[in-house]
């Protein structure tokens, strides 16, 4: 495993650890440090990444994951490149490797480009820009939670029962979260009627990570297989679906973890709100529709089993798109850190000006 384990692994080892991904400064060894999400929920450990190759590897194998978190990791990775790539002629290739580590979430390319844009001003400027992205994502989480609880209250009443998919908590951002941040805020306010976490095949971000975060926060929850979501909605057990996004296109199409579209169809059929929570850093007006987004296809190995346990016959051919596209007309509202957009009412990004950050 590239990267060094820096925290004694074990249950509870991360208690009190606040940030999913961060910069650590040692005079000789600047590094990107992150919670190893491949090891959760059983092993809690931090990885210290001292090379760009290690950061790229961590992003590709989902040791760090979630659109805002990989953006922050990519930005910090550029700052690390400026400090550690010995030959300046190799810097562009290092930055490109970070930018291309995963294709679908717009946050990664956007953060890498932003930090790369100040590299000419020196290592300190690059690090300052990367840390600014980190801090903006932290502030965004608070603001999305504030906008989100108001919207969910307006749509669903006093004690909403929610269904969420994948992991959209602090692990997917830096602290707080997007959709799961709204769930946490409702719980803290005593206004959460219940939450179902969808397990999120094949890498089980819901079963492994969302449950870990909910349990740590003391939020009661149920875990369901992905296919149960639309039926639980039809059976009247869910008042709203609330998910994050990896990219939201100009027309409001939402690209998110595979399985999101099925929940959206189930919600539409039952007349239940389908709410997307994502920071402005995930909004991509330069991409017209979901059909224009490169959807990452991942390996056969993820589908034929989990870890060392194989569940399909050897040699089967798989289809493994990591994300899907929920068309804008199935989305009741998008909550960002600066506005609430209801595409169902015919609004677009241009119709809704940016509001203030809230906390
Ligand atoms: O493949 P992942 O785990 O990086 O996918 C993450 C998701 O799809 C999340 O729902 C999305 O990034 C929003 S999280 C803030």
From TrEMBL:
Keywords on record: Amino-acid biosynthesis, Isomerase, Methionine biosynthesis
Any GO molecular function: isomerase activity
NCBIfam families: eIF-2B_rel, PRK05720.1, salvage_mtnA
Positions annotated as active site in the UniProt record: 246 (proton donor)
HAMAP family: Salvage_MtnA
Enzyme Commission number(s) of this protein: 5.3.1.23
Reaction(s) this enzyme catalyzes, per UniProt: 5-(methylsulfanyl)-alpha-D-ribose 1-phosphate = 5-(methylsulfanyl)-D-ribulose 1-phosphate
Pathway: Amino-acid biosynthesis; L-methionine biosynthesis via salvage pathway; L-methionine from S-methyl-5-thio-alpha-D-ribose 1-phosphate: step 1/6
InterPro entries found in the cross-reference section: IF-2B-related, IF-M1Pi, IF_2B-like_C, Initiation_fac_2B_a/b/d, M1Pi_N, NagB/RpiA_transferase-like
Residues where substrate binds: 65-67, 102, 205, 256-257
Site entry (Transition state stabilizer), positions: 166
Keyword Cell cycle: no
Family as reported in the entry's similarity comment: Belongs to the EIF-2B alpha/beta/delta subunits family. MtnA subfamily.
Keyword NAD listed: no
Source domain of life: Bacteria
SUPFAM superfamilies per record: NagB/RpiA/CoA transferase-like (SSF100950)
Stated role: Catalyzes the interconversion of methylthioribose-1-phosphate (MTR-1-P) into methylthioribulose-1-phosphate (MTRu-1-P).
Pfam families: IF-2B
Protein name: Methylthioribose-1-phosphate isomerase
